[in-house]
């Protein structure tokens, strides 16, 4: 693994750069590019949450020999999707009317 995730794998679950041809985009095409960025980022966030949401966090509290309190929160690595993740995404295939990034 390269980049930030490769250098700091203990704290970086995923590293992603979305890339669409938006350098010279204007008007409707720019709106389409912006939506593509948002949808790609949203899909990654939903994947990570489903694979390793708050329920996957292991919290440990311990006392050190000198009496201080040590708090630790860990997540399993590498991130593994839940078995039913593709089915969950298929049910959400289209943005609903209350979707904040739905196209106008």
Outline the structure in words.
There is one protein chain. The protein is α+β, with helices and mostly antiparallel strands and 104 residues long. The protein has helices at residues 3-7, 27-52, 85-91, and strands spanning 58-63, 69-74. It has a two-stranded antiparallel ribbon. The chain is elongated and about 65 Å long.
Helix content: 25-40%
Find the structural class using helix and strand composition: alpha+beta
Total tally of structural domains: 1
Give the quaternary arrangement of the chains.
single chain
Tally of separate helices: 3
Low-confidence stretches: none
Order of helices and strands: HHEEH
What distance lies between the first and last C-alpha atoms, to the nearest angstrom?
A: 39 Å
Largest sheet: 2 strands, antiparallel
Characteristic terms for this protein:
104 residues, two-stranded antiparallel ribbon, 3 helices, 37% helix, 12% strand, elongated
Task: Give a brief outline of the structure.
The chain has helices spanning 3-7, 27-52, 85-91, and strands spanning 58-63, 69-74.
